[in-house]
Amino acid sequence: MMPPKTNCVVCLSFILCAAVHGQHFSIKGKLEPVNKTGFYTINITPELSAHMATDFRDLRIADEDEKVIQYILATDQPSFINYNYSQLPILKNEVADSGRSVLIIENTAQRNISSIALLIRNAAVTRNSTISGSDDMDRWFTIAEDIYFEKKFTDKTDKYVQTIRFPVSSYKYLKITIANGRNNPLNIMEAGMYVDDKNNSSYPYTRNPSPSFLQTDSSDHNSYIKVTQPAPFHIDKVTLEIKGPKFFKRDVDILTRKGGSTLQLSSGSIFFYMPTFNDRTWTIRIHNGDNPPLVIDSVLTEQESRKIIAWFEAGKNYHLLMGDSAATPPVYDLQQFKDSIPVSIPQLKILAVEKVDQNAAQPKQLIPSEWMWPAIVIMLAVLAFFTLRLTKEVQRKKN
User: Is the pTM above the cut of 0.90?
Assistant: First the structure.
């Protein structure tokens, strides 16, 4: 008979093996062959994200021997760590008596500018703004109105980049007026622009396949729009096309499995930025009050454009693994070296997305799945018995 301590180790190992073999990835994405060793990107399309958790905890890259390799997730959202970024001097940044924030930025070289990137301390709020231009800081001319600051923030640092876009302008001074209402102002730390026109025109969101929807105007003065996606695509932005009066301003609730988000729908803003969700079916509730219901013409959803970056070796075959509800977020060393990755790297295409053959891809379970939990309970009881026995034996030897 084995010593009690050995019995404990054997039982614990058995439990761990059973638990590990009970987890698996259900979807595989086959990648095209790698011809040259180096960094490559893989675009996460809506069809691909439909098989992943919204935080990508169940995404892995494996080679032909099922060896997992490191990767990082990148976004097309603007970043200040970029070769084509040029900082712009902020001449004025203050809050006026009206509660509006006034930001005056100098376009020293008087370049043609169609967007400005602002570095802001984390703030999950929306703001309406106007941008004006001047060559002498005396006479100001409107460039664009109803520019909305996105309701977004980052979990990685305490600041994020907010890009505002407007018609091309070469004014020497640009004034951004932000309507805060009765709220506190945003903490804007830095301003800049992107010299590369191609980067300026890039759009950091990817359109999802169109969902279906059904609008119901209820007697409780609310309109309910039930939205159904063809697949659980990730959603970060929702845009509504509306038929109705020229001027309107109404509260809107976005109801998902994660809960509800209350936003505002107005004639100048018909889109919402959301915490990422992937519900197949979700609801938009519009509070009409005593106003006639708005007519929703279409519902468009988008997800933030993301890509996978990893180091691949020539001559090897690689594939993505997705769809494991028990997976935990991976932690890779590569994340610490992302600044060393070249700006321009080739892209790997996805050749096919298919279900994983569980019999071939997964190690055979030590015990049938239907007996998993009863077996674990029994082994825990045995483990407790031998632990108690070992404790008594140690106590007896002390006495």
Answer: no
